[in-house]
Design the sequence.
């Protein structure tokens, strides 16, 4: 075992810190303070994406030949730590962590050349079209049809939970190209290189937090070139499974959770408990905060083992273990945040949450985000394969 | 960063595992635990032969100069096999403190395995912090006299070397006491180890180190990493055995592990184990690098206690009626975890310390 920090890493930390202290605009910092989801305020997050790209740092996890940084795993973790310490809004995952890596693995050279640069630079935002009203956990029962016609497919049907589709200029989606045999066998993976196609309609869905984060997308005779297919026709299920690995794995998540917990601890020290002292002095609160500290530490340890290449990450159950741990910890921390702000969390502040809003927030920064973050976090155990499905997958690896 | 065992450490683990699989089946272990002595001199001799009593100590005392990683690698295996021999008492607890106070002569006897050591430290309902010791030491002639009660001293009634902590003037100090001197009430612990409550009543003692609070804290923190490794080893064994049982035990015509309720409980056991083991390995690496802090120890102790308990309780439930019997290792593995949790402050204590931010500034008595 070897955990020793080295001098080069500390030098790297300073370099990262200096950039992150100076590069973000005030609007980007404000967007960070007003982030209540994996998906932060769209315009500012994409602006920040382009600034990071100009520095060459938009995709630390990508291979160098596609525009990655070539950083070691330790460097990437340092970057994530410094990034989160400053409460900067995370870049959107769909391009960088999902369709980008997938195209590197399974896209044609033409598809790679056409799409990877825009993902890297932040010019393009890709929404994911997987779920349908009738196909959630049982994704393979999806029914949006794609019928070949000349060089195109003609699409009819609808997709739901397409995050930020109303902001997107690209979409990747699963469609049905055959009803023969096993339902997994008739699925095809397609890329839409524009969203203003005739017959395509996007309708935002207002979530529990009051934000139009999710959308529904309707297809009526929408034409898509067959050349935009990834993998073979009817082989989209294996393409999708490959992508799910990226979605469930992802990179270091614990630094963000660490920041959330530290803010909650700091605010608790200034919040009366109802027993005379501060909330931070209340033994019941201490016990619960301590449990989250310990759980977060274990998750950090798990993440560090995984990024260092420990066999724990080669366990077939690893993506599911990671997804369950990180989502449930996120939810528990979000509950603690609402507990700290108490009554202050009850004001519906969706207007004040807009970057550049004229509406003054009520209460402090934590009061502004705690309730919408809590409400939005209820989705973490639902999306990317519900935690029930993940537990099924973990159990399957345990049965001999 | 690298959190893997080296080839040598893997080899050592395999050697110890093979030896225990051969001579220390669960049935053999139960017979040993129920014997009059409560542990096996033959098994002990093999541990000595494998160098395991000498492992963590410097060469100057006949030790093998092994690292904390070596010790953790072995302790996980001992936990999985429910060892009742006095390795933890002698090598980890007594030996750990003797190494910290640099009592070379006594340490040489511990390292060679010829003497069994015991550490009399915890008092009352448990002593999570050395600053809380109330047993007192007073000067008496050329030496000292100790008064107080030490509880659940592993192998405390049968040790050859008795290391005792007591308050001398302002702070905790470390003493050596004739093992036959205190009044001992011996018993077997729920997890099958021999232990004793020891009563000191102006009992003569030799001072090994005064002003030993920091020294004790560091020695005990290291020992806790090893205790945690035993608990994690037992937790992994519970998971392995329960997954196997759920895959083969049939009810309603199918393996019970195919029922979603049972499957999800298995998944939760795996998640708990992975968390506990990740924290064990990370904390071990911190210890080796000399960067172990009180907060890290609190996290580790809390997690192996609470996550281990969860895995044990789920293992019993999944096994159903047979999980309730003394015949299966399941309950015994669970009890080993409960014992580790109860020693040196249970999970709740360490969690509250973490929540209060006290892990950085240890509590002191008034």
Sequence:
């Amino acid at each position: 075992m070897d955990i020793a920090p080295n001098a080069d890493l500390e030098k790297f930390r300073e370099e990262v810190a200096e950039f992150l202290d100076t590069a973000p605009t005030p609007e980007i910092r404000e967007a960070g303070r007003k982030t209540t989801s994996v998906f932060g305020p769209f315009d500012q997050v994409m602006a920040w994406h382009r600034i990071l790209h100009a520095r060459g740092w938009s995709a630390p996890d990508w291979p160098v030949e596609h525009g990655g940084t070539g950083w070691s795993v330790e460097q990437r973790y340092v970057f994530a730590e410094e990034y989160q310490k400053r409460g900067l809004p995370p870049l959107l995952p769909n391009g960088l962590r999902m369709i980008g890596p997938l195209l590197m693995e399974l896209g044609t050279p033409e598809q790679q050349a056409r799409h990877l640069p825009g993902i890297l630079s932040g010019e393009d935002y890709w929404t994911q079209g997987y779920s349908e009203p009738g196909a959630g956990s049982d994704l393979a029962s999806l029914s949006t049809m794609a019928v070949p016609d000349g060089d195109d497919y003609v699409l009819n049907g609808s997709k739901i939970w397409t995050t930020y589709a109303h902001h997107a200029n690209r979409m990747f989606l699963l469609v049905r190209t055959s009803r023969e045999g096993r339902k997994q066998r008739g699925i095809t993976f397609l890329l839409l290189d524009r969203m203003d196609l005739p017959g395509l309609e996007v309708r935002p869905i207002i979530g529990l937090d009051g934000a139009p984060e999710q959308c529904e997308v309707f297809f009526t005779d929408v034409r898509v070139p067959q050349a935009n297919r990834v993998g073979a026709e009817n082989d989209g299920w294996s393409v999708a499974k490959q992508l799910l690995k990226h979605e469930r794995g992802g990179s270091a998540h614990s630094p963000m959770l660490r920041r959330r917990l530290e803010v909650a601890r700091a605010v608790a020290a200034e919040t009366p408990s109802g027993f005379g002292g501060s909330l931070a002095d209340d033994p019941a609160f201490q016990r619960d905060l301590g449990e989250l500290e310990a759980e977060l530490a274990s998750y950090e340890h798990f993440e560090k083992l995984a990024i260092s290449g420990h066999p724990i990450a080669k366990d077939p159950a690893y993506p599911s273990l990671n997804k369950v741990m990180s989502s449930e910890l996120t939810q528990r921390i979000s509950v603690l945040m609402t507990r700290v702000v108490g009554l202050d969390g009850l004001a519906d502040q969706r207007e004040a949450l807009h970057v550049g809003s004229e509406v003054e927030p009520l209460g402090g920064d934590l009061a502004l985000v705690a309730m919408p973050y809590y409400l939005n976090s209820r989705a973490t155990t639902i999306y990317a394969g519900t935690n029930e499905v993940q537990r099924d997958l973990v159990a399957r690896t345990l049965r001999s | 960063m690298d959190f893997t065992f080296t080839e040598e450490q893997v080899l050592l683990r395999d050697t110890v595992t093979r030896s225990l699989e051969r001579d220390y089946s669960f049935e053999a272990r139960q017979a040993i635990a129920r014997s009059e002595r409560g542990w096996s001199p033959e098994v002990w001799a093999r541990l000595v032969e494998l160098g395991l009593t000498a492992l963590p100590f410097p060469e100057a005392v006949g030790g093998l100069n092994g690292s904390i990683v070596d010790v953790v690698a072995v302790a996980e295996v001992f936990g999985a096999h429910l060892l009742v021999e006095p390795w933890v008492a002698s090598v980890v607890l007594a030996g750990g403190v003797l190494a910290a106070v640099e009592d070379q002569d006594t340490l040489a006897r511990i390292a060679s395995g010829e003497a069994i050591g015991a550490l009399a430290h915890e008092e009352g309902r448990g002593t999570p912090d050395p600053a809380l010791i109330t047993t007192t030491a007073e000067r008496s002639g050329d030496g000292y006299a100790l008064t107080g009660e030490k509880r659940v001293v592993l192998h405390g009634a049968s040790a050859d070397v008795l290391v005792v902590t007591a308050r001398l003037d302002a702070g905790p100090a470390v003493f050596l006491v004739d093992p036959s001197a205190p009044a001992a009430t011996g018993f077997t612990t729920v997890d099958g180890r021999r232990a004793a409550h020891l009563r000191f009543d102006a009992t003569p003692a030799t001072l090994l180190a005064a002003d030993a609070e920091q020294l004790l804290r560091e020695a005990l923190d290291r020992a806790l990493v090893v205790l945690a490794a035993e608990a994690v080893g037992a937790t992994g064994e519970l998971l392995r055995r329960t997954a196997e049982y759920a895959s083969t035990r049939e009810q309603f015509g199918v393996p019970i592990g195919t029922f979603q309720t049972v499957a999800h409980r298995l998944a939760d056991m795996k998640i708990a184990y992975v968390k506990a083991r990740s924290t064990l390995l990370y904390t071990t690496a911190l210890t080796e690098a000399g960067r172990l802090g009180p907060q890290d120890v609190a996290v580790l102790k809390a997690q192996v206690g609470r996550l281990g308990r969860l895995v044990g309780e789920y293992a019993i439930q999944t096994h159903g009626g047979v999980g309730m019997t003394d015949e299966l290792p399941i309950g015994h593995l669970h009890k080993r975890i409960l014992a580790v949790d109860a020693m040196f402050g249970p999970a709740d204590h360490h969690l509250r310390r973490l929540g209060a931010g006290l892990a950085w500034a240890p509590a002191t008595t008034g």
